[in-house]
Amino acid sequence: MLNILQEISQMETELRSRATAYNSLKATLQSLEHNLNGNLQTRSLNDIVRKEDLVVSEYLTTLLVVVSREKYLQWEKSYEFLSEFVVPRSSRKIFEDGDGGIFSVTLFKRAVCEFKAKAQESKFIVREYSFDVEERKHQEIMKLTVHKKEQHGIFVRWLKVNFPQVFFAWIHLKALRVFVESVLRYGLPVNYQAFLLETDKKRSKKLKEELSSLFVHLDPTASMKEARKLTLLLNILF
Which Pfam families match (predicted)? Predict the structure, then answer.
């Protein structure tokens, strides 16, 4: 009995440890994948922006600006005047959805802060973006996806190996309980036969009722139960 409890306790500890590690990995991946969706102000731009969309040199840089649909015309007319160091006609729409679009604009690096401040005044949102950083995030997601798949397979195989052992231990405890309760209820010498009946959930309740009715004469507490039911019924009626 003690060996069974120790074995089950060790399995439970290992199960909790494996489940915690897997759920932590899953949560980390979900957090990163969450950024792949969402609105234009929060979603990842890795699958939208290509390296050739960006102009990056010693003096020039490209900013990505979120513009709502109703401000498209305002953006086209005003972006060149948000700073005197904006490259003329450099804006290009690289993506749009139902709410708005993402426009690129090229300017001198020295004017980035001024441009961001003026853009904010006009309700244009400049997205912080680095192609290399986004690429590293994408690689991390791919790596975690593969790792999660591997860990899921290992976890499932561990469950398949250990579940039968837990089930066997549970059946063993059930058998011990049947023996002990039979001795306590019917006394010695031991004279009984144990059976294992298999049924589905829909019929389990009916089976218990049938067995209780069939062997009610062997239950010394049955008469007391019936007496309590009769007393309760009389109390209700009177």
Answer: V-ATPase_C
Q: Cβ neighbours of residue 72 under 8 Å, at least 6 residues apart? A: 100, 101
Report how far apart, in Å, the C-alpha atoms of 176 and of each of 19, 167, 171, 183, 205 are: 31, 14, 9, 11, 23
* pTM assigned to the model: 0.53
What are residue 149's phi and psi, to 5 degrees?
-65, -40
Helix (H, G, I), strand (E, B) or coil at 198: coil
Q: Which residue has the tokens 């549970």?
A: 170
Question: What is the Cα Rg of the chain in Å?
Answer: 36
Q: 158-185, pLDDT tens digit by residue?
A: 999 999 888 888 888 888 888 888 788 7
Q: Is residue 102 within 8 Å of 40, Cβ to Cβ?
A: yes
pLDDT digits (tens, 9 = 90+) for 132-163: 777 777 788 889 889 999 999 999 999 999 99
